[in-house]
Each structure stands twice: as structure tokens, then as C-alpha cells.
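Minutes, structural biology subgroup

Action item carried over from last meeting: produce the C-alpha cell record for Rrf2 family transcriptional regulator (Pseudoroseicyclus tamaricis). EB confirmed the sequence was re-checked against the source entry. Recorded below for completeness.
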Amino acid sequence: MRQDTRLSRLLHVLLHMAETDQPLTSQDIAAMLGSNAVVVRRIMAGLRDDGYVAAERGHGGGWRLVRRAEEITLADIYRSLGAPELFAFGLSNPAPDCLVERSVNATMDETIAAATAALMAKFTEIRLSDIQSDVAARRTRVAAGQEPR
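Output recorded by EB:
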């Protein structure tokens, strides 16, 4: 099963953006992600449209955060990505008159809905600044030799 890593990769980029006053070009971000600039611009456009980043054209231009890390939640970033499916499970329906199939589908549907609601609730609690704090704590532990580089 193929995993969708866009959310974690985008959080990575946003954390780097939060650490600098310099804009990051689409090429910079693409190199960071092992991707290409066209894909980066497409993904960043959702964040721009939702008011989290802005793009500056020309020499010295690039992408910048326009909201503080404390103001951005994981749910915000997830929605900017177009709210992709969180779970790869699907319902089977080759025999819609089968009571067993209907029961299985109802159970799966309810369970996936509950799991999605729980995950989205957690996403709304976590801010970009929370991850920033974790990064800072890890840097301190690495500098002290308490965590591998």
C-alpha cells in the first residue's frame, strides 16, 4: 500500500521556512524534498490560497510564511492539501443484497468515520510551533550527546 507523505513533507518545509527570514525558492524546496519545482509550486499554491504562505517573484524571491507557527495547525495544512483520504480502507459492494456485506460495510464505515474524527481532532490540537519546540529540544539533546545526530 502506497503512503501519502505530502503532509509530513510539507510540515518539514514549513518548519524550515519558520526558521529563516529568507524566502525559499521552489527549487530550494524541491531539492529539500527530492522532488521538482513544478510539484512544489502546485502544493504551495494551496497554502498560498489559504493564507499561510506568500510567493515573491524575481531576484531574491521565493516562498515565505505569512502566518506565525503558533497560528497554523496540522489540520490547516491537511486541508490546504485538499484533505486527502486518511485511510486506505474501502468498502466492498459486489453483492449489495448480502446482509453480511452490508453489516461489514456499516461497521467499516462507522469505524473509519470515528477514526477520521479522532485524527482530525488531534490535528486541530497540534500547531506548527509545537513541532518547532520538539525540534529545538532534539537539537539540545544532540548537542549534549544525548541523542544521535
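Discussion: The mean pLDDT is 92.
Next step: EB to file the record with the rest of the batch.
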